[in-house]
Amino acid sequence: MLSGNKNGIRRAAAWMLLGVMVCGFIGCGQKEDTDGKNEGTPEAQVTKGAESDVQVTQGAEPEQDATDTAPTEPAKEVRTDFYISSIDEEIPSMSEYWKDYFSIGIAITKGELLNDFKGDLIKQQFNSMTCGNEMKPDALLDREATKSAGTETCPVLKFDSCDEMLQFCVDNNIKMRGHTLVWHSQTPDWFFMEEYSNKPDAVFASREVMLQRMENYIRLVMEYVNTTYPGVVYAWDVVNEAIAPGDGGEDGMRMSDSLWYQTIGPDFVEKAFEYARKYADPEQKLFYNDFNTYEAPKRIAILNLVNKIKDQGNIDGIGMQSHIGMSSPTLLDYEETIRKFGETGLEIQITELDINLDSNTEEDFLKEGTRYKRLFFTFKNLVDNGEANITNITVWGLTDEGSWLNKDGKRYPLLFNQVLETKPAFWGVLMDDGIPLY
Ligand code: XIL
Questions:
Q1: What angle do CA 237, 140, 178 make, to 5 degrees?
Q2: How far is ligand 1, taken at its centre, from the CA of residue 404, in Å?
Q3: What region does 206 belong to: left with phi over 0, alpha with psi -120 to 50, or beta?
Q4: CA 222, CA 211: separation in Å to the nearest integer?
Q5: Which of the following is catalytic: 241, 274, 362, 368?
């Protein structure tokens, strides 16, 4: 039987402060005697087809950041002891647990990664990494050097933002998802302007110039990463978030805030994949990545787009970001989307998983654990049934305190608390018996 070891269970239980325990939860005694060890291969706790019993409500899809969690009670505790003296070396490793299914990834920022304890926890738990911000165009593009170089078609890049992160991966045998090459966000406006101008009256560079800038940007990133850290990046998010049905672009494409669309036109995605294929190492997988992929119009537009690029031979996978709520999307909608994407034959990766929980009561933490467990149960079944080639699950952040979702108020979306203790969500990912599936 798979379950956490004693120490891990105690730590999960210790998270429940003030002695307030939820009956039936893992800390409630029955698991204290369990001496199970991680046995590597997940063992089903439930049988195929069990989802048909799931009680779900169909509802409108939320916006990306919407929280759909209705707190039932005021929060009962906030941890005040921030002292970290070590990580728990006894807890099972998620990447080890799921190794026969998919890699388990972490999105992290450089500051967090270089914290010794967080680094140790990452080494223990993950075998894939994504830079939270450090490999995005606004981190790599060097405007001064670009202007000094004096060519309209080729930017100059710097890699000090991500060098140490790539080296960490080399040193610890962790693979990296390259995130992200072509995105409307976190790409400076000057990159799209004649003479790289950042003045208010700047004018767009021509389509031809922008195509060359795009090709050179992709080439330079790939050349640097692949020669300096060979074999580390195994997947590239070539284009991020190009679909936004209703935004006015052709075929459901994002237009209003996409300077890529506005300068090049709707074929910018195809061109990005063409260039990426040209310069990528042959073993590197090329992904289209987006959020709210389970919304029907968006799913359809994404499928049309990726099928076109697949026919051109330039795409290997679809990334489903999966910034989700506690009850929306329904797992049925989510699963259906994975299945439909799976039908393309492309790889599927869950690239940015987090659950937008805005309460830190122990009851809600347990419900969050259940949601994580059901998600992984779903992923497992889809793989077991050959319905989707899911190759990676990445969580978007290590601790609740580090989550990007806190920009909208405090959230508790992840697997570890601020002192790096496991939450029920962690045990849900491990399919622990102490976390209810429903
Ligand atoms: C987020 C980062 O986590 C934040 O630190 C940053 O301020 C904004 O971007 N979709 C993506 C990620 O593809 O790159 C985003 O990351 C989250 C949404």
A1: 20
A2: 7
A3: beta
A4: 17
A5: 241
- H/E segment holding residue 263: helix 259-264
One-letter amino acid at 426 equals F
CB 174 within 8 Å of CB 230: no
Single-letter amino acid, residue 271: K
Q: Whose CA is nearest to atom 4 of ligand 1?
A: 404
Give 89's pLDDT tier (boundaries 50, 70, 90).
Answer: confident
**Helix, coil or strand: residue 391:** strand
- Sort residue 409 into left (φ over 0), alpha (ψ -120 to 50) or beta: left
Measured from the Cα of 136, ligand 1's closest atom is 14
Find out whether 362 and 16 touch, Cβ atoms under 8 Å. Answer: yes
Buried b (16+ CB within 10 A) or exposed e, 148-158: eeeeeebbbbe
Q: How far apart are CA 341 and CA 348, in angstroms?
A: 7
- Most informative mutation of 288, 351, 395, 404 for ligand 1 (most atoms within 8 A of CB): 404
Q: Which residues of 193-229 are buried (b: 16+ CB within 10 A; e: fewer)?
A: beebeeeeeeeebeeebbbbbbbbbbebbbebbbeeb
Q: Which residues pair with 377 in a beta bridge?
A: none
- 352 is a catalytic site residue: yes
* E strand spans, 61-205: 103-108, 128-131, 175-183
Alpha helices in 91-158 (DSSP H): 94-97, 110-113, 116-125, 137-140, 143-149
Closest atom of ligand 1 to 323 CA is 18
- Of 49-63, 235-249, 392-406, the least confident: 49-63
Per-residue pLDDT tens for 202-233?
A: 999 999 999 999 999 999 999 999 999 999 99
**Which residue type sits at 124?**
Q
d(CA 236, CA 233): 7
